[in-house]
Amino acid sequence: MTFTIAIDGPAAAGKGTLSRRIAEEYGFHHLDTGLTYRATAKALLDAGLPLDDEAVAEKVAREVELAGLDRAVLSAHAIGEAASKIAVMPAVRRALVEAQRAFSLREPGTVLDGRDIGTVVCPDAPVKLYVTASPEVRARRRYDEIIGNGQPADYQAIFEDVKKRDERDMGRADSPLRPAEDAHLLDTSEMSIEAAFQAAKTLIEAALIKKI
Description:
By secondary structure, the chain is of the alpha/beta class.
């Protein structure tokens, strides 16, 4: 038996932190699906391959190993920029969605977070969460994170970037960012990660009882 928890939401809403916490709590496997696009982009960059050839990008996407994706390495800005170019390619999305679905079947359970988990990757997941927060709060979190790492940051530039990314994610033709109809909404604008975790845990426990 396996049990899948699908978590979607915009950038810097807290879904990654929440997903890792939930996976740790239940002993489930965790996958940040955004990293699969970044890993594909990094492989293309490392091999000196073009970022505008869909057939090449699809081939590389099918070879990405989902175990042990290094978040620290893959969070580099240049990799993120490259990932945004290949993430709009339908063939790349199909290849990675197949891999993500296969991952979701791992026992005893999985937590997948991204932009289209509840709507496309795992539409039958027994628990779907949509984690969001206002653009201002998300930009502030990203700013604080960068400053906390000892790097310079410009809040206004980050805020504009957050809004631009939202428009791109929500406006794309293939798998746009939106809550699944049966997703539970968690607005973390004024909610601590602990409060969000407890709210999520209540929903997960109820679904687990149903599954038994």
